[in-house]
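Tokens in:
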């Protein structure tokens, strides 16, 4: 699996790898109460517990690992990434799944419409004259 990291994410990962060590294996590993790392996969429950602890420390009432996924997708869409690219990055088989995360409202559609250029040359005089003729024929 290829993961694209930029900005602070790349810096944070580089710092973590310096602490964790360069050996092959799971990127995120358990740390025991004494602060020792073991390079092995964390269980789903261990990930959930670590996130719940950090969420509580941050004062977040309810938090789950899926909230990170939802935020990842929503933030990319909010930043203007196209939905097909976000779909691939999230690993969704269907774009319909990705659309469920789309919290952008009508303002985004209005902004998208602004990207289009519809060529139009105003012909006011011709239109006014045609309308006058039609009215006189109708009466």
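Residues out:
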């Amino acid at each position: 699996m290829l993961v694209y990291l930029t900005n602070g994410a790349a810096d944070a990962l580089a710092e973590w790898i310096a602490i964790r060590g360069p050996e092959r294996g799971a990127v995120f590993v358990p740390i025991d109460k004494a602060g020792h790392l073991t390079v092995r996969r964390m269980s789903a429950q261990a990930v959930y517990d670590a996130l719940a602890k950090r969420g509580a420390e941050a004062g977040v009432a309810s938090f789950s690992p899926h909230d990170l996924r939802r935020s990842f997708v929503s933030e990319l869409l909010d930043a203007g990434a196209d939905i097909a690219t976000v779909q691939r990055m999230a690993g969704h088989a269907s774009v319909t799944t990705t659309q469920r995360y789309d919290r952008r409202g009508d303002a985004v559609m209005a902004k998208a419409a602004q990207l289009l250029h519809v060529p139009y040359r105003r012909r006011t005089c011709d239109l006014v004259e045609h309308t006058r003729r039609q009215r006189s024929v109708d009466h």
